[in-house]
Amino acid sequence: MILSIAAGAAMGAAIICSQYLWGIYTNLGIDHFLEYGFSKGFGVFIIAFIVWSIGICVFGGPAWIFLHDSGWRQPWVAGLVAASLPFIVTFALNTGLFSGQTTGSMTYFASGGLIWDHGVFTEFGWWSAFQGALIFALYGCFIGLLIWRVAYRKAADTH
């Protein structure tokens, strides 16, 4: 089980790190990428590995235990659950549902649009949060399938 969590966290960290490195390359150029990309990318990988490990244990662990004990051990179940959990968490984080932010005076622009307008979450903000959550759902699906594969692999024959 520990190996499967580590494999899933490593895959999630590799995805986040590759996005970071691609952003460095496309926004700052090849010179900056070659000079700073790998050293900073390693730090991003380590932090992302820790965050994915915590997320897999806190959110995925109880779900996996429940499904395993219920006999739901198929790969499609792992992919579906592993896609839905990051979707829910990412959507809630992006919309402020975890923070309780419902009113206020802030105005925030991102991704080419108005996300918050005087403390009100805009339609563009909801759409942007939905798109971000879909991306993380896709990551979660692949990570969940990897975790399933590692956790339920057949033991090697030692004879």
Summarize the structure.
The chain is mainly alpha-helical. It contains three helices and three strands. 75% of the residues lie in helices and 6% in strands.
What are the key terms here?
159 residues; mainly alpha
Give me the oligomer status: single chain
Q: Please give the share of residues in helix.
A: over 70%
What does the radius of gyration come to?
A: 19 Å
DSSP strand (E) fraction?
A: 5-15%
Shape: flat
For the secondary structure, the number of strands is 3
Please tell me the total number of domains. Answer: 1
- Which runs of at least 5 residues are low in confidence (pLDDT < 50)? none
Major β-sheet strand ordering: 1-2-3
Characterize the main sheet: 3 strands, antiparallel
How large is the count of helical segments?
Answer: 3
Class by alpha and beta content? mainly alpha
Mean pLDDT reading: 88
Give the termini distance in whole angstroms.
Answer: 24 Å
Element-by-element helix/strand order:
HHEEEH
